[in-house]
Amino acid sequence: MKVHLMYRDQDFDLQREPPQNEAALLQDLELDTLFGAMALGAKPLYEVARSAVLGSLQDIDAIRYRQDILKDCLKNAAVVREMHQLAVETMDSKERRWLRIFGFGNSSAGILRSSVEIVQLFLDILLVLRCIADEHAEAFSSEGFAAFFAMIKRELNDEYLATVQRHLAELSFQDGVLISAALGTGNEGADYLLAKHKQNGQSWVQRVLTPGPTTYTSRIHPRDFPGARALSDLKERGLNLVANALAQSADHINSFFGLLRTELAFYIGCLNLYDRLVQLGEPVAFPAPAPAGEREHSFTGLYDICLALTMGQNVVGNDVAADHRDIAVITGANQGGKSTFLRSIGVAQLMMQAGMFVPATSLRANLCRGLYTHYRRQEDATMNSGKLDEELGRMSDIVDAIGPDSMVLFNESFAATNEREGAEIARQITHALLERRIKIFFVTHLWAFARGLYDRGMENAIFLRAERRDDGERTFRLIEGAPLSTSYGVDLYRQVFGT
Predict the structure, then answer these.
(1) Cα–Cα distance for residue pair 238/109, rounded to 1 Å
(2) Which of 252, 262, 313, 366 has the highest local Cβ count within 10 Å?
(3) 376 neighbors 386 (Cβ within 8 angstroms)
């Protein structure tokens, strides 16, 4: 049995290696806020959300496959939550049952007895899951859920469930263990085989009155310990194969429920996030992904989801049409929403490539092969290096890892030196990245750098500016416009000192 609710043809691997730049993404994009809203304090949900969002999908069909499943989850939230809770309780019950039957030991008889109990537990839950499929399958339209429910109905039909139940009853050996064997070399026992008791369909009266076949019985004296051990060894050999087979069956069903719990956890996290955003009155939309080789990036109402979750209220969204552009340069007033906008770009990209909805009223963007952030950091407290050295070191790490059709978010980079030197460093780095077909969003106060790019009349560049009204008020919206020679720091001075 396969779950396949995260991928069409493979299981979701929670243990896969995280991206090399995971720590930078978590810090710069404040992703812990996003994962916390998805998890609601549940560590397993947090871990699944983190792995899924940072493990960006690189295939448009795979993204749409998840999107369709998530749409089904939004329409049938109660059913999805019921199935997830069923998987969670099943795994919890199994763990408690394992602790209770741990004393059965590692013998074939102990393994068989413990496996019978575990499979019986799983069988009862599988029956509940089959009932859910029978009752609710028609309400789901996605390819993933259609295949999942069809598998449940096909593999857990009444005949199969009855057969498994009958085998479990037989494996309890109410009538004792029947083992056949042959004599091997030196009259050693060989070819031990667990045999099935003959079922002749007679009533108990007939069985009592009908004489049975001639049998030979050997009884072990209560104090014959070597004889008891020999008899126990015979039983172990007879039960070994069936015990191992049933243990493997239990492991298979256990793996199914484990994957069901993990893969549904991603969608439960999405439901939790959706409910919170609806409560805040914030819009969401399913994005339209474009191939990585294209340059598509247009959206309306894109907002910083982490800021909205932190503040617990609506935040300002932005509308930008940046199709066929390789670089976006963002300048303008201090505290005008530039860094917030940059964060909204990065988080929305990760959410789109995880198959989720995005915090916007609409969004179309090309996939990126990798997302990297280069944000300014606090001064090195150990004084092992200067601030510019530290920035260049991180930039070197990015260059070593990045490839074509990736995206880099720069936030006030290379401002740790003078204007002229910082602008030249930024110019050379962006020029090299653009030659490698790397998409760039660059928030900067380096006017010489921004103005230099603008004056070149680059058709593949868009220049955005944080809006400021004549009275100094920040709207926290970005508009298309040429870089200005001031970031209006005097507004902050007046705000602080009142003059």
Answers:
(1) 10
(2) 262
(3) no
